[in-house]
Every structure is written in structure tokens, then in C-alpha cells.
Amino acid sequence: MTFPTVEDRLLQRAVARILSAIYEQDFLELSYGFRPGRNPHQALRALRSHIVVGKVRHVYEADIRGYFNHINHEWLRKMVAHRIADPAILSLVGKWLRAGVMQDGVVVRVYEGSPQGGPVSPVLANIYLHYVLDLWFERKFKTWCQGEAYLVRFADDFVACFQYKRDAERLDRTIKWRMKRFNLELAPEKTRMLLFGRFARDRMAMYGKKPETFEFLGFKHVCGTDLNGKTAIVRIPSTKSCRKFLDRTHEWLKGHMHWKRRDQQRQLVLMLRGFYQYFALHHCLSKLFWILGEVRRQWRRSLRRRSQRHRMFWSYLESRSWFELPRPKILHPTV
Questions:
Q1: How remote is the C-alpha of 145 from its chain's centroid?
Q2: CA distance 166 to 240
Q3: Which of 49, 59, 153, 169 could form a disulfide with 158 if both were Cys (CB 3.0 to 4.6 A apart)?
Q4: Are 93 and 77 in contact (CB under 8 A)?
Q5: Which parts of the chain register pLDDT below 70?
């Protein structure tokens, strides 16, 4: 892979700001990735609102296979030229798309995929899906729907919500054709339609089953109820998100086993706070406390490996100030 030089990165950052400022006027409310003032929590809030407030009964979960590596350059240049008339910017975008990748010391030209490792890549990727998916869904596909239909997209991760199953089935049939036209493909093993929403629990209970769950932006979404018996969407960190974080803390402890304990503590505090900052939503505390316990156990095992004289009993560790790690609390009560 080839990465842009410092000068090229500065130029890409400047062009990215120009493109972002222009396309912010065009981007739809349903997209939240790579946009100023927008974040994953806003996407989660919008999805929750559609399901709880709307008449959503079916959810279509999709995953684009290798999205960033399959963006068609010809289509992307046409999309940018649709709004940008400056030949200098168009020339730069074309140059970055043609930069290619390095394999075994040889630069290989590519004809698909966004520029590798550059600041302009996220903006171009967002522009591509704006035309391929967002506008198509809002201005064309929704006119075919007989009930309510919503789309929430963050980068290449998106979920569609429907009132009627037939509308969800129509999307399943048409979106594959739409993606193929623009050199994209949905991953069949990660794309599915499921019953979800305010009526899902009652309907599935008739068959002695529980509603299915789906994952979006690192959270597992579960159809539940609040204290008043009303429909509530329970979001908890997905198994994949938890495992990925614990693998990272394990590898860090393994590689820094002989650091001073206070230094280890400072790093683990930073890592845990970063995890809490993203995942500290309602219903997540029990899972976050489990994560805290797992990190403590990882650290204890690491300490025991480096010291044969002391077995690091829990009674000893609990009394040490250097072994203290932050406890989780809800940080996003309105999401």
C-alpha cells in the first residue's frame, strides 16, 4: 500500500474541506458518517426513534462487502463533476484515484477503491454512497413503499426500517441490482431481514420465541420493554466489540508486561475510558462492569507472570491504589 506524503496529505485535507463544505448542502439527514457535527450516537438515536415512535415492524440489516476497495473510479469522477466545476480540483481527485497501490516494491495501478490512507478518502466514499444509496432510497425507492420506510447510514454501515414486510422484501430484491450497477455487492452472510419493533415481542411470543436481534455501530439491538411495559430498544455492546477491545488490552499487557505498575495503570485507564465513552448508554452498565472485571483479570495474570515470588492475591491487589481502574457510569442518557 502506498501512503501520501506530508505535502500531499495537506493538499488532500484542503480539498476534503472544500468538498465537505459543498456537499453538506446536498447530503441527507439519514447519513451520519464523515460529516462535521455528526457522530455514531446521533445515528443510534435516529434509529431508536424510528423504531419506537414510528410504525416499524421489520428491519433490513445489510453489509457492503469490501466497500472502500470497490468504489468505481469512473462513477466517482462523474459524481464529483456533477457538483464541482473547478478543473484543478477534478484533476487532483483524478490523480489521487490513479495513485495505485504498492505491491512488493512495485506500484500497481487500480481502477477501483478510494485513495489509500488519505484525508480525502472518507469524503469521496461518502459522496459515492450519497448517490448510490441515499438519494435513490429517499427519492425513488420510498415512492414504491406502501408504508413507512426509513434508512440510517453511517459510512458504509446502514439499516433500513419498514412498516410492511413486502416493502422490506422489495428492497432486498432491488438493492442488489442497484449495488451491482455501481460495482458494489452486499455480503449475503451479513445481510438479512428480521421482525423487529413494537409488535415483534407479542407476535414472537405466540410461537414461544424471542424477537431476533441485529447489530449496528458496535451495538447489539434487542427488542425489549421499559418499566411501564412500553416498547424499548435495548442496546448493549456486541460480542464482537467486547472481544476486539479485550484482545487489544491483552496484547498491550503482553507487550508491556515489565512496565511500571503506575504506567500500566495510566494506559489501562485511558483504554477503559475510551471504551466507556462510546458504549456507556442505557442498559450497558452490566456489560461495562463485566469488561472492567475482565481487564482486571488480564492485568492480574500479567502481573503474576512477571513475579514468581508474589502470587498477587485479590485481597492484596484490592488494597493497592495502583491497581484501581475507573468504574463505568452512564454517559449518554439521551441516546
A1: 27
A2: 31
A3: 153
A4: yes
A5: 1-4, 100-112, 116-117, 227, 229, 308-309
- β-bridge pairing 157-162 and 58-63: antiparallel
Q: Is the pTM of this model over 0.85?
A: yes
Which residue in 157, 228, 225, 158 sits closest to 197, CA to CA?
225
| 148-184 confidence digits (pLDDT tens) | 999 999 999 999 999 999 999 999 999 999 999 999 9
CB 56 within 8 A of CB 196: yes
Check: CB of residue 324 under 8 Å from CB of residue 30.
Answer: no
What single DSSP character describes residue 130? I
DSSP for 88-111, please give it: HHHHHHHHHHT--EEETTEEE--S
Strand, helix or coil for residue 283: coil
Q: What is the pLDDT of residues 257-284, one digit of tens each?
A: 999 999 999 999 999 999 999 999 989 9
Residue entry with cell 457538483: 83
Alpha-helical (H) ranges within the chain are 6-23, 40-53, 73-83, 87-97, 121-129, 135-136, 142-144, 165-181, 200-205, 239-255, 261-279, 285-306, 314-317
